Amino acid sequence: MRGVVRTVSMLCLLVLVVPDLFSQGVYWESAITSRATSKPRTDRFNYMPKMLKTVSEEDGQIMIIRLDREVMVMVDPAKKEYWQMTFVEMEQFAEGAGAAMDAQMAEMKKQLAELPEEQRKMAEKMLGGRMGSSAVGKIEVKNTGETRSISGFSCTKYLVTLEGAEATAVWATKDVKEFEVMRRDMEELGKRMEAMLPPSMKGTQGTLSGVDGFPIQTEREDGWKSTVTKIEQRSTPAGEFEIPAGYKKVSSPMMGGGEVDK
To answer: Phi, psi at residue 50, to the nearest 5°?
Structure first.
């Protein structure tokens, strides 16, 4: 589940530039690093109209997004299993999870109110001020004007802040002409996939459209960084966006997991 949210969070950054007509797709590779890893891993992305496939080098998991069918599929090659959810199901799950989180927060506030004042203040301090609304705070995107060459592309730095604090730095380029054809699909994908994000990240989609260009490098304040190392125009066979033959269908971990009837 962590991998799903991580990938979705990254996909929600790809909502940029100008649309055009096209006949081919786009392929790119990203090197992912974090404070917890000793060396980068490479994730691979294949895009064709209304279809997106990502392959994680970390665990081999494959995510297939079909905008034409409004469905997301997660494939586990090691186990030869897959699960899928429609966009409507994901939105319903997110609504339920949000309601459960609100209920837990209300119960926590009730318990804190019953503590002696000194203990209550200490507990609130440990929670880092997260006892307020679960809604996302004020998000802003600023073009810093700073430029740098990354992976051979001329990039401009955009700073994303949350309540005035730096949250993410995005280095974007206008040199990737192939990406211009993806905007409509990426806008639709971002809006639908945002339903899977935690409540604290709701509302980021529209703001991140202020990043003008393809994000070559994205770095979060927690040390996580993604750098595009390769990108090219490439047609991907339609079969690559289908469930592999012979794989067993299981229920989504959001729904409890386990084998289901085909």
So the answer is: 70, 10
